[in-house]
Write a structure and sequence with these properties.
By secondary structure, the protein is an alpha+beta fold. The chain contains eleven helices and 19 strands. The longest helix has 20 residues. The two termini are about 40 Å apart.
Length: about 425
């Protein structure tokens, strides 16, 4: 357990509520709270913040271990002294029920039938490590909305633009790394993907080219500012796969690509779906059927094959535990897959002239890590010949996380994301 969390828990458990500066007054939820969520034998250090606007309470949390910052709670209810929080995620819902007493907040948490505890003490709000500006820029008719994090001082600052992963990703998804880089002296632009949050357009009706041009427009926007110097790109997963196209279009000054695919898009999809259903752990006959079924899905999605074979294989596979229902016929999956089917990341990597950092988790379940690393390095070296560095983290998954025995929450593999900061320092000092 981090020392700060241990101190919080000891203060709450042994000393009781911390004396409030005005105990005669009603305890106030507003402000910053530092403490931990606890379940089974695992403890997660967390910072929570709450604010009230009119009659509505809002809340958010940060966690270094989860690499998240500013994640909003879905619901915040405060009926003094009782506090109820709810956070609806993609797979589960977290519910908190606690009691505020002076400057301490203690209660229980529940997730998927499991129960734990939380304990927090009020914290003074820290001085902001960076300034933030709400910005808008355009790629043709599409207007993109984002946040520019600026470090202290007048600049000019080196800057980095964050590309998006797959799906409807908003700017908050990159906020943890963005804040970390900003505190290290970089200006950082995070923005809502087209059709998400404050951005216009539609990510569902776009392919890699449109998304890469959005990133190039972000680079061009930053280069117009007098307080910005060199501008680079950071992309993870889909963002890392698109990064070389965006870099070539924008003449980016440096590129960080994590979990970037170096294989054809259809082969990556076969690999990803195969891991999702656990093909390698199935009995031989089931594994053969699962592989045949996955190839049929990808043939329809990426190459426009007739659905007859897929429908027949789906009927045969439906009774197995690993089966999942393919996306509906009118789902965007099929059209998007066809739009990106011809994308060749290696062709774009050969055009990149700026320094490149490739970062992978060795146990990546979405992208073949070693095959992609080797292919991209070879493409860069036989292309424009840019300086390329590759880091592979043993035991880490697609998001550079791992679980140890007893972990309720995942943890970041040791050395990430420090490796990115160290490389950026070297790249930005290079002539």
């Amino acid at each position: 357990m981090p020392g700060s969390s241990r101190a919080v828990l000891l203060a709450v458990a042994l000393l009781g509520p911390v004396a409030s500066s005005s105990q005669a007054q009603e305890p106030q939820l507003a402000g910053e709270w530092k403490g931990a969520w606890m379940r089974d034998s695992d403890t997660l250090a967390v910072t929570m913040r709450f604010a009230r606007s009119a009659d509505t309470w809002r809340g958010e949390f940060d966690s270094d271990r989860l690499r998240v910052e500013g994640i909003p709670f879905t619901e915040v209810e405060y009926d003094p002294p009782n506090v109820r929080l709810r956070m609806v995620g993609d797979a589960t819902t977290l519910e908190f029920s606690g009691r505020l007493a002076g400057d301490s907040l203690i209660g229980t948490l529940r997730e998927s039938g499991a129960e734990g505890r939380f304990a927090f003490v009020r914290s003074g709000l820290p001085e902001p490590a960076s300034r933030e500006e709400e910005v808008r820029f355009a790629n043709g008719a599409v207007e993109l909305s984002g946040t520019l994090l600026l470090p202290a001082g007048p600049g000019p600052h080196p800057a980095i633009v964050f590309l998006h992963g797959s799906g409807p990703e908003a700017r908050w998804a990159s906020r943890f790394l963005a804040r970390r880089m900003s505190r290290a002296g970089l200006a950082v632009l995070i923005y809502d993907k087209r059709g998400v949050g404050g951005s216009t357009g539609s990510w569902q009706d776009s392919g890699f080219e449109e998304l890469a041009h959005d990133a190039a427009a972000a680079v061009a926007f930053l280069r117009e500012r007098s307080d910005i110097a060199r501008v680079g790109l950071h992309g993870h997963s889909q963002g890392g796969t698109i990064a070389p196209m965006a870099a070539a279009l924008s003449s980016a000054d440096f590129v960080v690509a994590s979990a970037a695919s170096g294989l054809p898009m259809d082969r990556v999809e076969v690999y990803s779906i195969g891991n999702a259903v656990g093909v390698d752990s199935l009995p031989p006959e089931e594994a053969a059927l699962a592989r045949e079924w996955i190839e049929a899905i990808v043939a329809v999605a990426y190459h426009g094959a007739a659905r007859d074979e897929l429908d027949e294989l789906t009927t045969r596979a439906r009774d197995y535990a690993w089966f999942f229902e393919p996306p509906s016929l009118d789902g965007h999956y099929w059209a998007f897959s066809r739009r990106i089917a011809g994308y060749d990341p290696l062709d774009w990597w050969r055009r990149v002239e700026a320094p490149v950092l490739l970062v992978y988790g060795a146990e990546d379940e979405r992208v073949p890590a070693e095959a992609s690393r080797a292919a991209i390095v070879a493409a860069i070296e036989t292309g424009a010949g840019a300086r390329v560095t590759a880091r592979v983290f043993e035991g880490a998954d697609h998001t550079f996380r791992l679980r140890r025995p007893g972990d309720v929450w995942p943890r970041t593999v040791e050395g990430y994301p420090d490796a990115i900061g160290e490389w950026l320092e070297t790249a930005l000092l290079a002539p």
